[in-house]
Design brief:
- The chain has 3 helices and 25 strands.
- The chain is mainly β.
- It has 2 domains: 104 residues; 228 residues, 6 Propeller (Neuraminidase), CATH 2.120.10.
- It has a 5-stranded mixed β-sheet, with no helix packed on it. Strands 2-1-3-4 form a 4-stranded antiparallel β-sheet, with helices on one face. It has a 4-stranded antiparallel β-sheet with strand order 6-25-24-23, with no helix packed on it.
- A hairpin with a 2-residue loop joins strand 17 and strand 18.
- It is elongated and about 75 Å long.
- About 3% of the residues have low confidence.
Length: 340
């Protein structure tokens, strides 16, 4: 009889403990869901519910192979945008509870709406599916995509006749390109490689494998030290131009209320990265030190005049002095805009 009483009491304690554990996890889940949309900023501290803190001996957050007891949003552990984490709670009753969550981190300052004025229009070959776009002097260097039509070419701004061009193999889908000294670097979309050309003749010099961390090749630019590549995610990857297979670092890109992914064609100018957002008439101005979007350009009106379907979207940024040149895939025009 005594054994039955003890067993029954133990069962009650176990049930109470299980209910308490479930309550802790449900409360934490509700909190995380409410904060996922609101987001955090660097320096914020996670204010976990009392139901969690009062019943926890310890709380840690793990990120893959990293773990911290600090509940502050620290850039040593978090990036801008969405962060997949696991909360590890050791209860005062000795149980270890785990819960996966997403912690969104946004920039503290709202993005500035940058205005501009169209001051010139130039012809562009509408057959060219623009993936990379630069200007040096009065010469446009352009990488065009599509299997069977991919190429690197250069032409004088105001004309559409190539001064030089090199076709890619039919299996290659060319993507972003950038000028580095006397060479032009070019990515491919899914071939996991890139090409290096002589800038004057566009003769192929060599090819390279880009790092596996890049899911695909999208945009490419150069900041004077590193290549910067996009792969359609929220991340920008800094690569060593002497060996582009080497990843130097990466940053995540976000504004004050959202992470930005689908980052496409890129341009570096005066200390900032400019990025097209695929299938949106928007160009972002990004701080390369931390991925913060400090400004946005709205090119809706220009895009309306040139976009007829889902493919012929805004995708081309270059700087002619302090003015920006913009174009798109299969667009018949290049626009020169003065930034206000």
């Amino acid at each position: 009889m005594k054994k039955n009483i003890i067993a029954g009491f133990a069962a009650i304690l176990l049930l109470a403990s299980c209910n308490k554990d479930k309550e802790i996890l449900n409360t934490l889940n509700t909190y995380n869901n409410s904060m996922e949309a609101k987001g955090y900023h660097f320096g914020d501290k996670l204010q976990l519910p009392k139901e969690v803190t009062e019943n926890a001996e310890s709380v840690t957050i793990s990120f893959g192979d990293k773990e911290t007891t600090d509940l502050t949003i620290d850039p040593k552990f978090f990036t801008l945008g969405d962060n997949a984490v696991t909360f590890n709670i050791k209860t005062k009753g000795g149980e270890v509870l785990n819960q996966d969550a997403t912690i969104n981190v946004f920039a503290k300052n709202p993005e500035k709406n940058i205005t501009y004025q169209i001051i010139a229009e130039y012809p562009h070959d509408p057959k060219n599916f623009v993936q990379g776009f630069q200007v040096e002097g009065n010469t446009i260097y352009e990488s065009d995509g599509q299997n069977g039509s991919s190429q690197i070419l250069k032409y004088t701004l105001g004309t559409t006749t190539p001064l030089a061009s090199t076709k890619q193999a039919p299996e290659d889908f060319s993507e972003g390109s950038t000028i580095v000294g006397d060479k032009v670097y070019q990515l491919t979309w899914q071939s996991k490689k890139g090409y290096i050309y002589d800038k004057n003749s566009l003769k192929l010099l060599s090819e390279f494998a880009y790092p596996n961390v890049l899911g695909e090749g999208w945009g490419l630019t150069y900041d004077g030290k590193n290549l910067i590549a996009s792969d359609g995610s929220k991340l920008l990857y800094f690569l060593d131009p002497a060996d582009p297979s080497k990843l130097v670092k990466y940053i995540a890109v976000a504004g004050s209320s959202q992470a930005y992914d689908q980052l496409n064609e890129l341009e570096y100018h005066n200390g900032f990265i400019y990025a097209n957002v695929w299938q949106k008439p928007v160009i972002l101005k990004i701080n390369p030190a931390n991925g913060e979007v400090v400004g946005t350009f709205d090119f809706t009106e220009i895009a309306k005049q040139n976009t007829k379907g889902s493919d012929d979207v805004l995708n081309g940024i270059a700087f002619k002095g302090e003015n920006m040149l913009v174009t798109g895939k299969n667009w018949p025009k290049i626009y020169e805009v003065q930034i206000k």
